[in-house]
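We give the chain.
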Amino acid sequence: KYNVAVIGAGVVGVEMLRVLKQRNFPVNELVVFARSARDIDVDGEIYPVKSISPDAFKGIDIALFAGTEGEKGAAVTYAQEAVKRGAIVIDNGADFRMDPKVPLVVPEVNALDVKKHKGIIANPNCSTIQMVVALNPIYKKAGLKRVIVTTLQASSGAGKGAVEQLKEESILIAEGGFNNVRVSAVNKSMPQQLAYNVFPHIGSFVEGDYTNEEWKLVKETHKIMHAPKLKISATTVRVPVRTGHSESIYIETDKYISVDNVRNMLSK
């Protein structure tokens, strides 16, 4: 059994706690860390949250990071501290994904890469994961010339605040119409209206007038599938649902492969 720490008590951290329980993961001791100590209720079970610090990782075997990204985020601040104290870090955020010394792993696609870790293992973007699981068997069987993908991403992808914004806006529209949203909405986690709206702008615009969310699909797929020259074009779209991303993917293969063959591979 393992001593496990979940770092972050937001939407992702809560889902990690659920999955650990659902999968009956062999946990010896489970600890939840966040910026401040408190209790959280997950499906009727109370989890005490402890204040995070470098020494809090003593005795931890696996540290699952689900906190804020960026230079002031939990992973950048504490991941190396956890590794120094003997933990293996699995980071859900973007901070280490493109680090050449950190494996970016989807078990169904490149499980062997996990052996290359030096204390930190990165978890890809949610949209990348579901795409490479579908693409990889086709790539192995028939090769790929190019991929064109459009993602339809739920509010949960933007965090707990966006989920609450969608809920509040939906209630306001139901009670008083669309004008009521503009006037009365309190929780504005995102600048755009989420309820009854679709917008193809996730993240900030970067090179080539793509957003950084779109570039994640390109660069992470190259790294995971060991296919740096694969041509990928991505459009990422926010849609007004609580949780659950989906994608439309167009592909061209190097070799002919029948639709029935593709269906059989994906069904396995």
The longest helix spans residues 126-142. The chain has eight helices and ten strands.
